[in-house]
Design a protein that fits this description.
Helix content is 41%, strand content 15%. A hairpin with a 2-residue loop joins β11 and β12. The chain folds into 2 domains: 144 residues, Alpha-Beta Complex (Aspartate Aminotransferase, domain 1), CATH 3.90.1150.10; 277 residues, 3-Layer(aba) Sandwich (Aspartate Aminotransferase, domain 2), CATH 3.40.640.10. The protein is globular. The two termini are 18 Å apart. α4 runs antiparallel to α13 and α5 packs parallel to α13. The protein is of the alpha/beta class and 456 residues long. It binds 4'-deoxy-4'-aminopyridoxal-5'-phosphate (PMP). The site of 4'-deoxy-4'-aminopyridoxal-5'-phosphate (PMP) has 14 residues, from α6. This is Aspartate aminotransferase family protein. Belongs to the class-III pyridoxal-phosphate-dependent aminotransferase family. InterPro entries: Aminotrans_3, Aminotrans_3_PPA_site, PyrdxlP-dep_Trfase, PyrdxlP-dep_Trfase_major, PyrdxlP-dep_Trfase_small. Its cofactor is pyridoxal 5'-phosphate.
Amino acid sequence: LSHNRTLSERDRDAVLHPYTNPIRHQETGPLVISRGEGVRVFDDSGKDYIEGLAGLWCTALGWGEERLVAAASEQMRRLPFYHLFGHKAHDPAIELCERLLALAPVPMSKVFLTGSGSEANDTALKLIRYRANALGQPQKKKVIARDRAYHGVTLATSSLTGLAVNHRSFDLPDPAVLRAACPHHYRNARPGESEEDFSTRLAAELEALILAEGPDTVAAFFAEPVMGAGGVIVPPAGYFAKIQAVLDKYDVLLVADEVICGFGRTGKMFGTETFGLRPDIITVAKGLSSGYLPISAVLLSEKMVAPIVAEAGRIGTLGHGFTYGGHPVSAAVAVETLKIYAERDILAHVGRVGPRLQDGLRGFANHPLVGEVRGVGLIGAVELVADKATKAAFDPARGVGAALVARAQQHGLILRAMGDAVAFAPPLVISEDEIAEMLTRFARALADVTAEVIKI
Ligand code: PMP
């Protein structure tokens, strides 16, 4: 796939690109995105693409939302920067935290503002540790995360992330992070095992893990309601109820990473509601500001807050915080984003158009290369397989998922491959017509790749 750049321009690409093969990149150069409008982005030659992944799951409201531009520029004039350290606050941060507490799907008492999803989860990890010390339980600090989880890429959160690419050559993961199975029914269930039985087994395995480690050493379990970067894994029936029962039994905190699911993606305001979690901590980012400016947040239950406040009061200060945490311009944009979600009833919209996406994706289920189609609300995935009957995956070296994404790009659709699962998470404001167009472009890409695969 070659983009619209001259060789000399490509040579001058000064960016070290994340999640990109730097050697292949030299051959193709970057796809340079110049502007966006609604659910579409345009490259520097003017070609349009439907953004099938909301620009890394961020841009819920699409591009060109003038109210967010206005909120940013007003705040930029009034108070472009201030921090929250040492008894200081500003209106956008206070209003944002109040709104988040009002929206929270379970009772929460305070919000800690951060700048990215990784910072939010890193903060959650640190506060869990702080609380354990405050409670005089210094041994109760181990955390559990799942295979194929994605919780960030700081040195600490990379270890929560359960993807080899984030570990290899970084000397990670930290062996102190315990690993639970990925609830991927299609891949990990035993032959004939129902979703309920699979969930029961995973909960039993979690209990065995906690007992083997010693319940007095295990502090928390991290979970995305729907696992995003791991390939859009929707929890099987009964999963979170059974997991929650085990966590409650051994006094293990639940951290719901709502960085992707939060703010309507699964059809409810939070994935926590869709799947019945009872978290003690919720982390949010991305959709919080519709991606227009970086901001994230950690919502904390009273069970977290009370010991932390007591400990910080005793020591004299809470020794944690980022210069840009709760940046006023980002916070003002986030406040406006939350207002727009409410005024336009984004949940009702997802309720209307989500089934169109899910039905459309299910339309590919009988395709010979499609092993599974899965999803909920406005998030979904199509997983390709070499053999539908045996579920045998393609040799990763063939890069079939990447080829499909490349073909989709040629047909004007931006998607993302996680192995051979191709993920869809368009801006939440997408219309039914735009979903239909997106699926048409995907069908063309799938036909191309099918022809290539059969030829080989
Ligand atoms: N948690 C989840 C569920 C995510 O999907 C991501 C980012 N894709 C993160 C955390 C990390 O967010 P960031 O890239 O802003 O650090």
